[in-house]
Design brief:
Elements lengths: L3 H4 L1 H5 L26 E8 L3 E9 L2 E7 L11 E9 L8 E3 L7 E13 L11 H7 L1 E8 L3 E8 L8 E6 L11 H4 L10 H8 L2 H19 L1
The structure holds manganese (II) ion.
């Protein structure tokens, strides 16, 4: 099995850590305290070229990652495209801020939800399947315990022709499912700091938002004059 630092090569190659505030891929000393029993998950709302949600699961010392353009749903009927991206370091889980324009993923990031997960994937005989094996099989099932999201989710590699990194994120049918909710619209703020992506963008100087403020004020003025 590849070590976390070998897995993070792609992550490091894409970024200039002198220019981005994102965590580096530097290996860190093992945690002194015993590891919490449950691995973590995080969903970061990321306004790069387009707005999307990055789903990350802690697996074998790194964060396995997917970019989900429409974000997660609580409706089991929804199939949300989830594009597999490079593994991220564990430290990325609490990154919130602005990646400078021109850098990889340039734009604003907030921690939209975070918590722990349990692996609930079993084989046909009902025996547990390890997450790393489930990833290779292209069929992951986890139970999330977040601030916003709860319950079972499946992440399934599509069998369609096309890029091999396309997966689907699906809500499983359980008591936490709710077809009527629009959870990304209802709960837009950071689960870590309570801030919206707009607030973090303005504080961090995301040029696109900073430019928008005078425009929005001007629009407001011209409306009140009319
Ligand atoms: Mn992203």
């Amino acid at each position: 099995m590849a070590t976390p630092s070998a897995k993070l090569k792609k992550y490091a190659q894409k970024r200039d850590f002198k220019k981005t505030p994102e965590p580096s891929a530097r290996p860190r000393p093992p945690r002194r305290k015993p590891k919490p029993k449950l691995p973590m998950f995080v969903i970061q709302k990321h306004h790069a070229t387009a707005l999307h949600y990055d789903l990350r699961l802690e697996v074998d010392g790194v964060l396995k990652s997917w970019a989900v353009p429409k974000g997660p749903s609580t409706n089991p009927a929804d199939k949300r495209l989830a594009v597999e991206v490079e593994d991220h370091p564990l430290d990325y889980a609490d990154f919130e801020g602005v990646i400078p324009a021109g850098q990889y993923g340039g734009g604003t990031v907030i921690v939209w939800d975070h918590g722990t997960y349990r692996n609930i994937k079993t084989d046909k005989a009902g025996r547990p399947v390890e997450v790393s094996q489930a990833l290779r099989n292209g069929s992951v099932e986890v139970w999330l315990e977040g601030k916003k999201l709860r319950g079972g989710y499946a992440i399934v590699r599509t069998r369609m022709t096309g890029p091999k990194n396309n997966w689907l994120l699906l809500k499983l049918k359980d008591e936490a499912a709710d077809p009527k909710r629009d959870i990304t619209a209802d709960e837009p703020s950071s689960a870590l700091s309570g801030r919206t992506i707009e607030e973090v963008a303005l504080e961090g100087g995301d040029p696109r938002y900073v430019r928008l403020v005078p425009q929005a004020l001007a629009r407001l003025k011209s409306k009140t004059r009319a």
